[in-house]
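hi! just following up on the protien thing from before. the input was this:
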Amino acid sequence: MASKKEFGERNMNLSFKLLDEKQYLDWVVTTAFYSSIHFVEDFILPKKINGLECINISDVKSAYKLNGRHSARLKLVYDSLGVSIGAKYQWLDDNL
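and the predicted 3d structure came back as:
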């Protein structure tokens, strides 16, 4: 199975390819966002949260006692990377 970083690179390469082809520009943005998700998770995880060793977003969701992966990832970004990056990530998540 590929690592989060490898998935991020694959999505980023697809995003650049679609951009170069000037087609499916909505997918340029979508694949760029998905690549950022993989890169962020690769950068932050593994991480201990509330005494639990989290290696993936499902673990994070359990550690934070949240219902969804999106809310868990958003809290993870805010808690790990700060308000400035968290707010930018939230804007992307809210607008895609």
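DSSP finds four helices and two strands in the chain.
The radius of gyration is 14 Å.
cheers
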